[in-house]
TrEMBL record:
SUPFAM superfamilies xrefs: Winged helix' DNA-binding domain
Domain of life from the UniProt record: Eukaryota
Locations listed in the record: Nucleus
Pfam families: IRF (PF00605)
Taxonomic path: Eukaryota, Metazoa, Chordata, Craniata, Vertebrata
Name of the protein in question: Interferon regulatory factor 1a
GO BP, sorted A to Z: immune system process
Residue span, IRF tryptophan pentad repeat domain: 6-114
Entry GO MF terms: DNA-binding transcription factor activity, RNA polymerase II-specific; RNA polymerase II cis-regulatory region sequence-specific DNA binding
Record keywords: Activator, DNA-binding, Isopeptide bond, Nucleus, Transcription, Transcription regulation, Ubl conjugation
Length: 163
């Protein structure tokens, strides 16, 4: 059971994106609810726990899985727990074709989908989007935008990140 006062991941994450406290955690397109999270590999040269694991540590602290002074710092576990929690959300999907998982500027791009952000106990965790990156997956490019077909009545639009 979730303690009173503890936000669920989606609401907590929206607050963190808005706060600007975490370098690289930002909206790519706020109106479309597309955002990015730095995802640098800890084995890479230049990785720093105080710069590259702060969002994951904050989530671990928020959930009570890490308390400074009581628990040993474990950024690998913080990141894995955050990734699993994020992947379990039915209304947040990674846009893998826009993510960069290699190099010193690795990041992942996600989209918050419209729909229920709170599930009732026992409800199915069925994803809204089943995009796999293949051409037969229900997505298509039009004018620099990706259109994901969720149902015959609903479409989600994502914008390609440009630098």
């Amino acid at each position: 059971m979730q303690p009173a006062g503890r936000l669920r991941l989606r609401m907590w994450l929206e607050e963190q994106i808005e706060s600007g406290k975490y370098p690289g955690v930002c909206w790519i397109d706020k109106s479309e609810q597309v955002f990015q999270i730095p995802w640098k590999h800890a084995a890479r040269h230049g990785w720093n726990i105080d710069r590259d694991a702060t969002l994951f540590r904050s989530w671990a602290e928020h959930t009570g899985r890490y308390r400074p002074g009581q628990h040993k710092a474990d950024p690998k576990t913080w990141k894995a727990n955050f990734r699993c929690a994020l992947n379990s959300l039915p209304d947040v999907r990674e846009l893998r074709e826009h993510s960069n998982k290699r190099g010193s500027d690795a990041y992942r791009v996600y989209k918050m989908l419209p729909g229920p952000s709170v599930r009732n106990r026992g409800e199915c965790n069925t994803p809204y989007v089943t995009h796999t990156g293949r051409s037969d997956s229900g997505s298509q490019w039009k004018n620099g935008k990706i259109f994901y077909t969720i149902s015959p009545m609903v479409k989600i639009v994502s914008y390609a990140k440009t630098y």
